[in-house]
Structure formats: C-alpha cells, structure tokens
Amino acid sequence: MQRHTLVLADHAPRFAAVPQQAGVYEFRDGTGASLYVGKSKNLRRRLQSYFTARHNERRKATMVKLFAATVHYELTGSDFAAMLRELELVQQLRPRFNRRMRHPERYAYVAIDFRLPFPRLVLTNETAEGHVFLGPFAARSRMRAALEQINDAFGLRTCGDPLPDAVQGKGCWRYRLRTCLAPCQGNVSPGEYGRALLRAVRTLTGSSHALREWEQRRTELSEALAFERAQRLWEREVRVRSAQRLLHLAMRRGDNALVIQPGVAPDSLALWAICDGDVASRTEVPRNELHAAFRRTWEALSAAAPREVSFVRQEDLDRRWIIYRWLRTPEGREWSVPLARRTEQAVWDDVSARAARLFTSPVLVAAP
Predict the structure, then answer these.
(1) Which of 164, 223, 287, 356 has most Cβ atoms within 10 angstroms of its Cβ?
(2) How many Å is the Cα radius of gyration of the chain?
(3) Which positions ≥6 away from 1 have C-beta within 8 Å?
(4) Which pLDDT tens digit goes with each residue over 27-71?
(5) How far apart, in whole angstroms, are the C-alpha atoms of residue 235 and residue 221?
(6) Residue 88: which H helix or E strand, with range?
(7) What is the pLDDT of residues 133-191, one digit of tens each?
C-alpha cells in the first residue's frame, strides 16, 4: 500500500489533498514518534474532524492538535481492509494515544496445574512452566463469571494451595452449599476429581454434553414450577456458552469464507481468503482477472493441510476478533461467501455475483 505524508501546518484543517476513500492514518510529532493510528471509511472527512470546533472538546483530538506535526495515510480500498491494517500498525508502532489493541499482554488465560492432586481452574495473565493454559482472551469479567459457574457445576475447588485441612474446610461456604467435591474432607479421590476437571475443561473448550444435561434439567424444573432454580441453570448456560465462544475464537478454529472488497487501484477488487477464522491470503486484481485469482485461491485452500487445533498467539487474537465480528455484520454477510461443505462451482457463482454488484454498491464506494 502506498503511504502518503502531509505536513499539518500546510494542510489542516481542509485536507483537500486527501481522497474521500477508506484507509488508515497516523499522526506523528516533530521527532517522528507515533502519536495515534486510526481508520475511516472517508479519510478526508475524518482528518478534518480533528480540527473542527465540535471536536475540540475531545481529549484525543486536543492531544493530536497540540503535538502532531505530520499525518501519514494509506488507502486500503475498503473498511474491512482498513480495520485489519489499523490493527497491524497499532501493534507495530504502539502509538502514544491508542489505548485499544496496543498491549497484547492485557489478555488473560485459564491456568491448570496438573501436578497437583486436585488442580484448580485459575484466571491469570501470566504464563508459567508446568501449567496448561487455555486462552488467550480479553473478556476477563465474562470468563471469571463463567469459571464460577463451571466450578459450581462440576464441584471443583477454588481454595488456595496448599489444600485446607478438614477443620478449615468445614468452614467453607462452598462445602456447606454442596457446590464443591470437598477433597479437603476426603470425600473424593484424585481420580474422581480429575474426571470432573476433565469434563469441565471439555465443556469450556466446546463440548455440549453438559449443556444438554443442564437444558434437560432446566425443562424439568420449569415443568415442576421451580422457576428460580431453572433461572439459575439458564444463567449458568449463558455464561458458559459465552466462555466457549471466547475460547473457540482463541483456538485455531473459526469461519472459512471468501471476502470480496474493493481494491485500492481503480476498477480492481480484493479477494480475501479466511481460513479457520483468520486471514489465509489477500489478492488484489483487476476485475477481469477475478476468475483466475479465484482459481489460485481455491487450489491453495484445497491443498492446505488441516491446522492443528491449538491456541493462537496473543498478537493474533485481535485480528480474529475483527474478522469474527465483521463477518456477522450486515456488510460482512453481504460481501462474504461461506466455504463449508460447498463445491467450487457453487462458491464461484456467489463470488462472481457479489463482484458484479461491487462497483455499483453505495455502501462500499466513497463519494467523489
């Protein structure tokens, strides 16, 4: 992508040289240090907004006006490409005023120490030797709520190490409520506890067996007019399903699709291959070369070996979130073609139909 540089003193606030197209921009100070990276469907309008009276009250705009000396911008062809490019630049440059997506270390994990006779599910943001980790994920509060439900459902202990003695254990409220298998009381063997832990981990990582049991139990409780207990089971299901989505996205699983978007060059388009929820390839071609590009992409996807199911790196997770969310927006559903269990001809028919509509779509073509 071609990068353009403007000196703010010469162009703000009109930015007449900036196209009204999708792209990313970066403000830098007089020393060349990166201040802020952003994206927009209309670059000129967005840059102008930083220097209008309406924008003056916003802290970010005020900081940019005080410190920025130059602005760099790149055209991306589409908002989808701009979102991914913005993430790439933020992670690479760590701009001073970007708060989101700048620190991959903010992510958390669920840690399990299988060296213990009665392991716990522990929420942590640091990895350590000898533990097994599930993650990374960003929604700590949602995962914490889900772990509370999982611990209660499978009777896993939440007390610290070393294991409390029998007297201390009898004072535990989870022991009194019978939501813990209470290994401190000798009520469960390490093998029985391990099987409960394994079921909990399988449920977190996508198994629906326990969820079906809870759903059946919830139906029985509703028929027996025990609505409060049924409501608690429903809340458990909701929180655990939320945790499953978080971990599903953190694993090398996800959507398989082709995305059609405008290219940067006039009369061109970009073909994105999304494999297991992440970008496998991006090709920009003139519109009359789409079929050849599609054939190359299809052959590459067909020949690719299945990915091992494992957890992704922290720096990849934000990109997977962007793709996951965009594919579920109205724009994403309109301009993506799912690949699961479909023939090459069926996929090509959908790709060519979307390409035919692409250049007349008011959503994707910026105003002159």
Answers:
(1) 164
(2) 26
(3) 74, 75, 76, 85, 264
(4) 999 999 999 999 999 999 999 988 876 655 567 778 888 899 999
(5) 14
(6) helix 79-93
(7) 887 787 788 888 889 989 999 999 999 888 888 888 888 888 888 899 999 998 899 99
Where are the alpha helices (H) located in 224-289, listed in sequence order?
A: 227-250
Beta bridge partners of 111: 122, 133
Total residue length of the chain? 368
DSSP 251: B
Which residue is associated with the tokens 């090709």? 283
HEC string of 347-359? Answer: HHHHHHHHHHHHC
14's torsion region: left (phi>0), alpha (psi -120 to 50) or beta? alpha
- CB–CB of 279/270 below 8 Å? no
Q: Retrieve residue 9's tokens.
A: 């003193």
Q: Is 262 helix (H, G, I), strand (E, B) or coil?
A: strand
What pTM does this model have?
0.74
**CA atoms within a 13 Å half-sphere pointing along the CA-CB vector of 236:** 23
- C-alpha distances in Å from residue 63, one per residue of 27, 28, 29, 95, 225: 11, 11, 11, 12, 59
Euclidean distance between CA atoms 39 and 134, whole angstroms: 32
C-beta of residue 240 within 8 angstroms of C-beta of residue 145: no
**Residues 234, 231: Cα–Cα separation, whole Å:** 5
CA dist 54 → 39, 41, 62, 348 (Å): 19, 20, 11, 47
Q: Round to whole Å and give the CA distance between 76 and 214.
A: 47
256/340 Cα distance (integer angstroms)? 6
**DSSP letters of 289-311?**
GHHHHHHHHHHHHHHSPPPP--B
